[in-house]
Design brief:
InterPro entries: Acyl_CoA_acyltransferase (IPR016181), GNAT_dom (IPR000182), Ribosomal_N-acetyltransferase (IPR051908). By secondary structure, the protein is an alpha+beta fold. It has a single domain, classed as Aminopeptidase. It is 25% helix and 33% strand. Strand 2 and strand 3 form a beta hairpin. Bound molecules: coenzyme A. Coenzyme A binds next to helix 2, strand 4, helix 4 and helix 5.
Length: 178
């Protein structure tokens, strides 16, 4: 494993801002670019949102961020994944490794330090090839199409909905690397 994951802390604010600023061009094509968002993100952590920062183990650089958001428990135990990877790690496979750790943690029982979720969704704009490739690499299935689902870049954008349930998850170490 070239990466590790952990929850954000206020002390990550500068590293986070640098990474987002460096990556503004490719992140900004699909997601808001918010270099100063980390302190607020830390404050919002709780029952409905858990954020994971993905770090390169050797260099300690920030590879990416994944939000496990809209967490609903009860009979649903469901959440949505939203993610960005940062330069210089973009396209090196590290983000995929980190996302496997995030999915693994999201599905792991709460008694074992996980989030105890049963189903995860990834909603992607149909033109976002790298993100669709990520969803498929992780084993997510295309479930459907959601017109005008999210307000991004000043318009309500259609999204493809990918999903995975814990029964389908082989574990973070399984599957091909590319
Ligand atoms: C979507 C996004 C997170 C993907 O991140 P990424 O940095 O490309 O992820 P990875 O590096 O793990 O991607 C693997 C790619 O690197 C390649 N790669 C290079 N070296 C690799 C290695 N050693 N191991 C595995 N893959 C490797 C893979 O072949 C793969 O390429 P492919 O997508 O053409 O198949 C990133 O493009 C991004 O931040 N996009 C902007 C924001 C965004 O769209 N977010 C999602 C909204 S739904």
């Amino acid at each position: 494993m070239r990466v590790e994951i952990r929850y954000p802390r206020i002390a990550d604010a500068v590293v986070y801002a640098d990474a987002v600023n460096r990556s503004a061009e490719h992140v900004g094509r699909w997601n808001p670019v918010e270099p100063d968002a980390l302190p607020d993100m830390v404050r919002r952590q709780g029952d409905t949102l858990r954020t994971f920062l993905i770090f390169d183990v050797e260099e300690r650089g920030l590879v990416g961020t994944c939000n496990v958001s809209n967490i609903v428990r009860g009979r649903f135990r469901n959440a949505s994944l939203g993610y960005n990877s940062y330069l210089p790690y973009n396209g090196t496979g590290r983000m995929t490794e980190g996302m496997r750790l995030v999915v693994d943690t999201a599905f792991r029982p709460e008694t074992e330090g996980g989030l105890g979720l049963h189903r995860l969704e990834i909603n992607v704009q149909p033109e976002n090839g790298p993100s669709i490739a990520m969803a498929k690499r992780l084993g997510f299935r295309l479930e459907g199409y959601s017109p005008r689902m999210l307000f991004l870049q000043n318009a309500w954008r259609d999204h493809e909905r990918y999903a995975l349930t814990v029964e389908e998850w082989p574990g973070a170490g399984a599957g091909s690397r590319s």
